[in-house]
Amino acid sequence: MAWVYLVLAGILEIIWAYMLKQSDGFSLLVPSAITVVTMIGSFGLLSLSMRTLPLGTAYGIWTGIGAVGTFIVGILFLGELISPARIIAAILIVGGLLLMKFSSDFQM
Fold it and tell me: Where are the alpha helices (DSSP H) in the chain?
């Protein structure tokens, strides 16, 4: 269940980051409110996942989901730059996330 919490926390992170951009510096009420609510939800779910997952694994994957997700949202909805270097960077982050996930399953 910890992995489900972690993925949901990452999705909420993407939402709050996007809504933070839309809030125009917290000057717009609805996007600001959505930002705060999804931040609380994201942190809450992250904390639940950390009950059983290692700190480095949970936090690393949470931030990675947020980073890659906001990268994709920025391109799709905000017209942000898409370049070979940014795509390679996103692929490397995803590779790191997979390695982090699979390495956390093994004890040395």
Answer: 2-22, 29-49, 55-78, 84-104
- Those residues whose C-beta lies under 8 Å from the C-beta of residue 29, and which sit 6 or more positions away, are none
Q: Are 36 and 68 in contact (CB under 8 A)?
A: no
**Is this structure's pTM higher than 0.90?**
no
The domain limits of the chain are: 2-104
Q: Answer left, alpha or beta for residue 24, where phi above 0 means left and psi between -120 and 50 means alpha.
A: left
The string of pLDDT tens digits covering residues 33-59 is: 999 999 999 999 999 999 999 998 899
Coil, helix or strand at residue 9: helix
For 11-29, give one letter per residue: b (16+ CB within 10 A) or e.
Answer: bbbbbbbbbbbebeeeeee
